[in-house]
Amino acid sequence: MICVEHLSRHFGEGTDEVRAVDDLSFRVGPGEVYGLLGANGAGKTTTLRMIMGLLVPTRGDVEILGRYVTRHPEGIKRQIGLVSASAGLYQWLTPREILLFFAGGYGLSRVQAAARVETLSRLMDLHRFLDRRSATLSTGQKQRVNLARALVHDPPVVLLDEPTRGLDVVGSQVVFQFVKALREAGKAIVVCTHQLDEAERLCDRFGLLHRGQMRYEGTLAELREQTGRNSIVDMFVDLLQEPAAVRSIPA
After folding, report:
1. Is the pTM of this model over 0.90?
2. Does 220 reside within a domain?
3. CA distance 227 to 3
């Protein structure tokens, strides 16, 4: 459902050129949770922006449901739901008003939008605060609304960028339940995070991104065989200790 093909994004020119993402390829199927993992600055968010058509690749492309992002960026955006820890809410609107607003932006009729809000309210347990101003909500409640907003148009592809950042244990559990529901619904899911222990609980397969390059990919069992390490944290410790010269830079 998602096919990332030799994706690269470079910034700057000449000796100042930085390869934020360098020849990245991976696939994600329906009902699969793929963990795109890396430390801060590894290229995760840049990759998500290219998948969404918000950033034009230097090279390569992304295919979603048979359509290439560089050729159909607007159509692709309607197939994707994004959950980001940095996304805010309109503080003086209620969750219901926010969800209806975004549903309308995706072309749902008023009847369709109302039905979708009711479905998401049950799924995300929003009923208790659906008509309260967002400014009065707790961090965990706001994240529930963010999760619902990403699904208001029922997209087949969902991207989660640091979805548990700033959340306590209860709030993080909401995200885990959300991802489980998405998997059961057959969505193709990409989770970008540097919370590696949480990723082990969430994801079916993993891509370990380091300095813009895919260094290891596979299930947890396959990664253990490739690296000789038991946990993803230990795998990244090894990567972080590599000399800086390993980074791909122009000659």
Report:
1. no
2. yes
3. 25
